[in-house]
Structures are given as C-alpha cells and as structure tokens.
C-alpha cells in the first residue's frame, strides 16, 4: 500500500483504467491491517487481499500458496483476440 511515488491503490486504479491491463488478476499483498485498505482494494477491483506475515519463513510459505493458487488452480478469463474481425 505504501509505495514511494504512488500508493498501491493508485497503482490499482491505473491498472483497472487501462484497457490493456483491466482484466489482469490483482492480488494486494500487504502488511496493512486497515479495514479501509481491504474495502478500498476490493471496491477498486482487486481480486484478492492478503496480509503478508512478518515472519520470513511464513511469508515464503504464503507466497508459495498464493502462486500455486493463481498459477495452477485459478481459471483465468479467456484471452481476448485483438486485431481480428469475427
């Protein structure tokens, strides 16, 4: 959430505003415990909000589980064909 020039919610706004990136899966991975951050993230189109553990080993385990879900289990939307007349 707290980035140097633009915060995480600002990045999410830009991702969702751009036609090329609008449908990308977005996972908010943060140490924030603020309920407003959770609500704002989902309201702006985040697909998931995950609080990262402070302990390094637990963090690695959480990232491993996240990657398995998003890369193996999750069914992404079909790719849109561009430049073709159907």
Key features of this structure:
86 residues; mainly alpha; Rossmann fold; two-stranded parallel ribbon
β-strand percent reads 5-15%
The helix content, as a percent range, equals 40-55%
Strand order of the largest sheet: 1-2
From the N-terminal CA to the C-terminal CA, the straight-line distance is 41 Å
Mean pLDDT: 88
User: What's the CATH architecture?
Assistant: 3-Layer(aba) Sandwich
Choose one word for the global shape.
globular
Order of helices and strands: HEHEH
Number of strands: 2
Which structural category fits the helices and strands? mainly alpha
Description of the molecule:
The chain has 86 residues and is mostly helical. The chain has one domain (8-73): 3-Layer(aba) Sandwich (Rossmann fold). The chain contains three helices and two strands; from the N terminus they run αβαβα. A two-stranded parallel sheet has the order 1-2. The protein is globular, with a radius of gyration of 15 Å. The N and C termini lie far apart (41 Å). The relative contact order is 0.14. The mean pLDDT is 88.
Can you lay out the helices and strands and say which pair or pack?
Elements: H1 8-17, E1 27-30, H2 35-43, E2 48-51, H3 56-73
Parallel strand pairs: 1-2
